[in-house]
Design goal:
The complex is a heterodimer. Chain A is mainly α. Helix content of chain A is 68%, strand content 0%. About 2% of the residues of chain A have low confidence. Chain B is globular. The C terminus of chain B is likely disordered. Chain B has 13 helices and eleven strands. Chain B is α/β, with parallel strands linked by helices. The chains are: A mainly alpha, B alpha/beta. Chains A and B meet through helix 8 and helix 18 of A and helix 1 and helix 8 of B.
């Protein structure tokens, strides 16, 4: 089920919340937890219940029991079995086809490529549970009730595309009695947050996608793409991805807030970053945190000298790229960022030694340009399509191509990209607008602070209504991160 | 406490404004996407039945099924002569000749064909819903009696909320479109082919390049017909349809508008024999179509003019019982 569907907004959510708070009012907390679990499973298995539900339930059961045993005896073999089991599941569903395809290409053998459909959200719930097993093995987790554990993994606001959270920050919230009682301020706050996320998705991401998608499709079909189109395609996609994913994260945060649960933030105006290191502190923050805590630091982090640190960074980013999708384009995207981070850290060291400093506008332009160029393999259907776009960006296919993919709409495309970029760069982000508790906002000097006033209600309500009108009038579109 | 009240007001106002936003957003999108539709066909009698655009496309299936065009529904209910069929019946009988003929004899008629190749299943649903009581029924039976439903017909019969919402928006859009193009014609490029439908008699008014004086002569050599099995199915469905309408079989006329793809005459003739109804095929030579299927305007004028003249005797017979007090009876006699 999609957050941006009429079914979800008008049927699923009102029913789930009503029954949850009714059970909470009756002081049936365990029943309310069970209800949320059931609702989350309905949400997850809605489109393909016979395939998806056994998979997630088996994954939850496996990790719950392995985690419970690890908490009792921190057995290395059991830990290896637990993590290996998760990686095997992910490997089978996500990487089997990629591995066989690569093997065929390298060896010239023609093994049949397995045709396995990727179960939605598998990367997210597998990573969440690997983190739990690691913490259980380290003795940093607690033994949880089966239903609470199931809810922790399957909690519908985060299940399909994150934010990737940590059991320590979520589990206590499922036990807080006040979260089971309807609180109008939590609901109103969550609703506003959800509305802003929905608006990002429907009014920004899906609109700019109309310009970027045909350009990448043309490149995938083997057409030469001109300079103007290439830049429109790349910048358009960069903005589409940002508004799509940060919109999804906002919606997830808003939904959880409606029942008083606070999810971690996932974005913090990444296109305002002044370096690549800064970018990764602002983009998909919960994945960065996961990769740092469960990959980069265990690899040695920066504790074993600069060379090892650079190798660790490269490995982390390569695997991070591969996490996004089973294709060489994602590996290349990860590699580009890995190399970029290495250069960034090396530059920091040089700059520190010689007291050098890039002016902020130059640092910002360099960072944004790098990130945009790197989005090409992330979005392109193949390496050759990515090369076509890169060549186009460098003007190899002419300044103004003879057959522009979006010839009639270049002006509107440029205007749309300019407006969305301006919003991303100069407007406050959701947490700045809504003053998310416990978030320190240093950069934004004149925030438009949210207060439950009639002006805010009218503005947020109308924006929400317009976004919903797009859902009703057109077919809802999937979120980009559902593919990962 | 103050904060609690503020939040209550906030949520209430939010929900209210969300409703307003849905309406503004819906009409706004519909308007932006469909400004290309023709606006010159609107008048107090005509509504925009179809426009070749993504968001508007078909309106008439839903509008007539859900009664959004009240005067059209009244016309269907009051029609004494009802024409049913697909878009071919619309092309064939949307003529001045038909309108003049019935106006002259003061007989109410309605051309109730539907685009997208819809047949008896959808027409039956409409007739069941609005219970008209025509005295004469003209069926473009080539074969018409089939169970296929076009996507717009299916959407209308399923009546999902999203479809109903879009339908309501299309209805609202027409008011906005008409007014906007009147006061600011520059923003209306008038570029997409559109069909306006008369609420009084159901005739189509095609506006746009699709009908620009195209003339494809009818080529009978490529015509196909239906199988025995299809004929049997059509007969079974035809029996059911006619029983439901309740029109005397002697007052049912089966015909087939001339075209290049189907031997409509043979099909309608075979069906008329099975269903024990009248059939009528005015012999007119040199007819042309727009696209091999639909009669063009000039041919429709000639063919439908001949058709209505030829149906006069049936009309007289079928209407005399109920119309003996009306001057229309004399009119029919003089029109013959």
């Amino acid at each position: 089920m999609l957050f941006n569907s009429a079914q979800f907004i008008f049927v699923f959510l009102p029913i789930v919340l009503s029954v949850f708070f009714l059970l909470g009012r009756l002081r049936e907390q365990m029943l309310a937890v069970m209800w949320l679990v059931a609702a989350s499973l309905v949400f997850y298995g809605f489109d393909d219940p016979y395939r998806l539900l056994p998979l997630i339930l088996a994954s939850i059961a496996f990790n719950f029991f392995v985690g419970r045993m690890l908490l009792r005896s921190q057995n290395r073999i059991l830990f290896a079995i637990g993590v290996g089991g998760n990686l095997l599941l992910l490997g089978y569903f996500k990487y089997a086809g990629f591995l066989v395809g690569t093997f065929n290409e390298v060896t010239g053998v023609a093994l049949q490529k397995p045709n396995i459909a990727l179960p939605i959200g598998i990367s997210f719930f597998t990573f969440t549970q690997i983190a739990f097993l690691v913490d259980a093995y380290r003795g940093e987790a607690r033994e949880y009730e089966p239903f609470h554990y199931t809810l922790f993994v399957s909690f519908f606001p985060h299940l399909i595309a994150g934010p990737i959270y940590h059991h320590k920050e979520i589990m206590p919230q499922f036990h807080r009695p006040e979260n089971f009682r309807f609180d109008i301020s939590n609901f109103g706050f969550g609703l506003t947050w959800f509305a802003l996320g929905l608006a990002k998705k429907m009014l920004f991401a899906d609109v700019v996608a109309q310009y970027s998608t045909p350009i990448f499709d043309a490149a995938a079909a083997g057409h030469a793409v001109g300079l103007v189109d290439s830049w429109i395609g790349v910048c358009g996609f960069g903005l589409q991805l940002y508004y799509d994913f940060s919109g999804y994260s906002d919606m997830a945060i808003g939904l959880a807030l409606m029942i008083g649960v606070r999810l971690p933030l996932n974005f913090n105006s990444p296109y305002k970053a002044l370096s690549l290191v800064d970018f990764w502190r602002r983009w998909h923050m919960t994945l960065s945190r996961f990769l740092r805590d469960y990959l980069y630091i265990p690899l040695g982090g920066n504790r074993k000298g600069p060379r090892r640190r650079y190798v660790n960074l490269l490995v982390t980013m390569l695997l991070g790229g591969l996490w996004h999708g089973a294709a060489w384009t994602f590996v290349i995207w990860g590699a580009i960022h890995g190399v970029g981070l290495v250069v960034n850290h090396a530059w920091n060291k040089v700059a520190e030694s010689y007291r050098l400093r890039l002016p902020d506008p130059a640092a910002w332009a360099l960072t944004l340009g790098f990130v945009m160029v790197a989005w090409v393999p992330f979005r392109a259907d193949s390496l050759s399509a990515a090369v076509t776009i890169w060549k186009g960006m460098l003007g190899f296919h002419g300044l103004v191509p003879t057959e522009s993919v979006i010839a009639a709409r270049v002006t509107t495309a440029v205007a749309c990209i300019a407006v969305l970029l301006a919003v991303a760069l100069f407007a406050p982000n959701t947490q700045q607008l809504l003053s998310y508790p416990r978030v320190i906002i240093a950069a934004f000097r004149q925030p438009i602070r949210f207060v439950p006033s009639p002006k805010w209600a009218m503005a947020a309500g109308i924006v929400f209504g317009i976004a919903v009108s797009f859902i009703i009038t057109q077919r809802p579109t999937e979120f980009l991160y559902f593919r990962f | 406490m103050k904060s609690l009240i503020a939040w209550r007001w906030y949520v209430a106002l939010f929900v209210l404004c969300a409703g307003l936003g849905i309406l503004i957003g819906g009409v706004g999108q519909m308007t932006i996407d469909n400004l290309k539709c023709r606006s010159t066909g609107y008048d107090n009698d005509h509504f925009l039945a179809y426009c070749r655009s993504d968001m508007y496309a078909d309106y008439e299936h839903g509008a007539l099924f859900y009664g959004l065009e009240r005067s059209a529904i009244d016309s269907i209910r009051r029609a004494e002569v009802l024409f049913v069929g697909s878009s071919k019946v619309q092309a064939g009988f949307s003529s001045k000749a038909v309108r003049d003929y019935f106006n002259a004899i003061n007989v109410r008629f309605f051309v109730m064909g539907f685009g997208y190749g819809d047949g008896s299943t959808f027409s039956e649903a409409i007739l069941k819903k609005w219970s008209p009581s025509p005295k004469v029924l003209v069926v473009n039976a080539d074969p018409f009696f089939h169970e296929k439903l076009s996507p717009p017909a299916q959407d209308a019969l399923e009546g999902r909320p999203a479809f109903l919402w879009r339908l309501a928006l299309k209805s609202l859009f027409q008011r906005v479109h008409r007014a906007l193009c009147l006061v600011a014609s520059r923003v209306c490029p008038e570029s997409e082919p559109s069909i306006f439908r008369s609420a009084r008699d159901g005739q189509w008014n095609w506006i746009g390049p699709y009908v620009a004086e195209k003339s494809v002569p009818i080529d009978r050599s490529a015509q196909t017909t239906i199988t025995e099995e299809e004929l049997a199915t059509a007969t079974r469905l035809g029996e059911k349809f006619l029983d439901q309408i309740g029109v005397d079989r002697q007052c049912v006329i089966l015909t087939g508008t001339p075209n290049s793809s189907l031997d409509s005459t043979a099909i309608a003739m075979a069906l008329a024999a099975s269903l024990k109804t009248n059939s009528l095929f005015p012999p007119v030579d040199g007819l042309s179509t727009l696209d091999g299927v639909h009669l063009n305007l000039a041919s429709a004028e000639r063919w439908s003019g001949q058709f209505v003249q030829a149906m006069t005797s049936i009309l007289q017979k079928c209407m005399s019982a109920s119309m003996h007090n009306r001057e229309g009876v004399a009119g029919i006699a003089t029109a013959n």
